[in-house]
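Field reference: sequence -> structure
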Amino acid sequence: MKSHARVVIVGGGIMGVGLLYHLALEGWTDIVLIEKGELTSGSTWHAAGQCPHFNGSLNMTKVHVYGTELYPKLEALTGQAVSWHGCGGLRLAQTEEELNWLKYVEGISKLAGYQGEIIGPDEIKKYHPYLETFGLKAAFRTVTDGHVAPADVTNAMAAGARKLGAEIYRRTQVTDIKLLKTGEWQVITDKGNITAEHVVNSAGSYCDVVGSWTGHNVPIANMLHHYMITEPLQELIDLEMELPVVRDPYSHSYLREETNGILIGPYETETAHVCWDGKPPAWDFESELVAPELDRLTPWLERATERLPLFAKAGLKSIISGAITHTPDGVYLSGPAHGPKNYWMHCGASIGICQGGGAGKYLAQWMVHGQAEINMREFDPRRFGNWATKDYTTEVSITDYHHMYYCYKPAEQHEVGRNLRKSSLHEKLKSEGAQFAQIFGWERARWYDKSGKGEDFSYRRSNWWEAVKSEALAVREKVGLMDLSTFAKFEVTGPDAYAFLERICANKIPAKTGGIILGHLLNDNGFIESELTVTRLGDDRFYVLSAAAAQLYDFDQLSWRLKPGERVEIKDVTDDYGVLVLAGPHAREVLAECTKADLGNAAFRWLTAQEIEVAGVKGVRALRVNYVGELGWELHTPMADMPKVFDALMKAGAPHGIRLFGTYAMNSLRMEKAYRGWGSELTSEIDMFEGAMERFIRLDKEDFIGRAASLSLKQRGERIKLAYMAVEAGDNDCRGNEPVYQNGKVVGLTTSGAYGFAVKKSLAFAYVDPKLARAGENFEILLLGERKKAQIIGEPAWDETNSRLKG
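Structure field:
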């Protein structure tokens, strides 16, 4: 065994091997994979091997499509045989909302570049003559996906990695991982130790145990999953075609042909549970199965027989019951772990055979080049904080498993695993009818429902419409109040704090106390990593805000950019402060009733901050800035004192028609102001010029991280350009990842959208060909199967001169 390597990957399933192969393809060959047993001997070997294209996420679809394009070519690339079955698939829809889902995914298929179409019940028999079509409205037919033998693709990628210079150590157990003073990682095994620059936790069912050695929380559950295969059937022996893989919400199962028999895998919706009572498997557990529990599958097998009567005609040949890893949101973990640099996660995949190739490709790009060609945020392990405990992970993973074939409508979330993080106003807002959504463990109000019915989730405008309209117009015409305590909040202090922030931000840091700027952290390639609001509280005191979901991500972005010897302290104060957004034409009058501070323009200008006393609460950080484009303040208040400030503002605001508002109204208001969103318009795929953010990058600064690359990118010119559009949307609005057409060709994609109640227009952002990004240019946007007219407009649609903000 070698003593040093650039990368050590722990775990020899398809995820680890897929990463090894693609790191080697990217040119890193001083790499090692260590597996305690044989390759695939964990959960990979017994997987069913489905490789679907159908997915509601564009980035995940790209992961899937890459795998289905790679696997048929692996034998030619590596010399190792691969049994690929490109039989296509059928995703069935029973309800109107499921049909809307198919229509949305049809748009994603156009962007991802795979063959897919919606077909009616009468057409299904053409592609699957043995399927019963009762209760169906439609099916989404994919042409080029299918299924593959898991061991084949894993061993083929292993062979390819070895040919490129990678090493694989089988029958070698990792027993510990330690961080060295040099910043390197020491991987301790029963056959010697290896020091590595990078270490990757790809340990499958053991990844939470491996993570615990270094203090990393890895939120995975080992779910027990079954599938069964029948004896061969003469009908299938005689059939010239191979049946497509069917995914059926009625039986909550996948159904396909396997060696001339039928393979059925149900995802039971009430009785699923974790393996081994939630404990990790024994270290000597290898290529084994778990005892099957067929009784609890009976209702789903009966339904599967109704959908595919052929299943009842043959006896069972084999029953596979084994562990599959599952995360609370059903998405694998791939990216840097929170904390010291160069510890990577690459695990937790419940559809790992399909994802192994693409997941490996894009993480390899991130590791080698500092970014991937797709947005990796939805895979980043730091989307979970320490609130994702073992109990939470188990409960929510089981629920996610139960809902494998459930159609979650936009904004709909699991109801379990809730109320983990709450602001001190939670109960007050709940009593006002707040409809909460979970964001990074926080409960945050979407809108306020006075009827008590709750939200009717839909792909189309629903029962929230009138309430949100009233909330948004109250902000525009009177005054609104919002709890936005979910902000990630950091204090950056010390003698070198100013110089540090100047060095890492693309914008200039305020030179005077009280100044506020919008800043962006770029990577070395000049692409956008983070968006921050930076407030200067004093000579060496700065208050930095970012998105709720970026709390761990941005703490790392700040910490990892520190140079040795810089006298800077970075402290996460997210839970210490609550945030109230007070905004609207009457905001100054309302706040004046609660403070003695001078709120006039001369004393308290736009984009400045002061520490003031509000409602008897001292030390309130009042920032004259907001995300809704009106006169107003963000009041950052000690969390325990926020109810006192809230009550005072509501009382003072009553004569002015104050109204609580949530994130639905905020999104409408920010779209009217054409404010870009981090994670939607601004991602690591985009540079500042493509995102139309030129005014926030100061290339005249002496230097900052990403400056040299930004100069090159500016000279190169934009590949795509952000455009702001008005859309004739009908009864639904753009959500993001809808295709944009011109003259019948796809020329771009949307990133987000909403209806602007004050301007009475449906608005959207979209990236398009730069030659087309000019006011007045006309397009069509595919919205739930219909092409809707859209036109680029001058931005913003509301208060273009910012006179209301500055008023």
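Note: The first strand starts at residue 4 and ends at 10.
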